[in-house]
Amino acid sequence: MPDRAQTTPQNNMFHRxxxxxxxxxxxxxxxxxxxxxxxxxxxxQDVTLATSETLFLQMNGMNAWxxxxxxxxxxxxxxxxxxxLEAENEDYWFFxxxxxxxxxxxxxxxxxxxxxxxxGIAISKDPSNPHPAGAYAxxxxxxxxVVVHWFKKKFMADRGTxxxxxxxxxx
Length: 171
Known about the structure:
- The chain has one domain.
- Helix content is 15%, strand content 42%.
- It has helices spanning 9-28, 153-157; strands spanning 40-46, 48-49, 56-59, 63-66, 74-78, 81-88, 92-96, 101-107, 110-117, 119-124, 133-138, 144-150, 163-165.
- Strands 1, 2, 3, 6, 7, 10, 11, 12 and 13 form a 9-stranded antiparallel β-sheet that branches.
- The longest helix has 20 residues, at 9-28.
- The protein starts with 8 loop residues before the first helix and ends in a 6-residue tail after the last strand.
């Protein structure tokens, strides 16, 4: 995967095409009785650049969150490290991942396909938001982010163990 500085609009188009194909595969399985595709999204977010020395997200170890606990179809995997605040809007803080995130496709509990994208984790500023967090990819410019996967409740339940914000009491 190219360094983020080497990412071009053409690469973004390539990533979008791959992302669309992964979503189509997941949607094809959407007819299964146990499948839930409500996590799938392509939510374009206008953002302003932001920085903070004190507000960041810490990922403790390599972690993946999937669309469902049993027999997942899709998931997102992050590498450990410090995710720095790179942008915000009225609803979310956008924390930039130190390494590309991985969108994964599963079949019978095994990873069968995936792709890497630059992006990070969006955390809602409002705890009552029905979408408290999600995985995002970089948009066509620095003022655009695309949420590609809404996390389920498990992601927020893992706060303090698998990940934490610098404002949490444990940091």
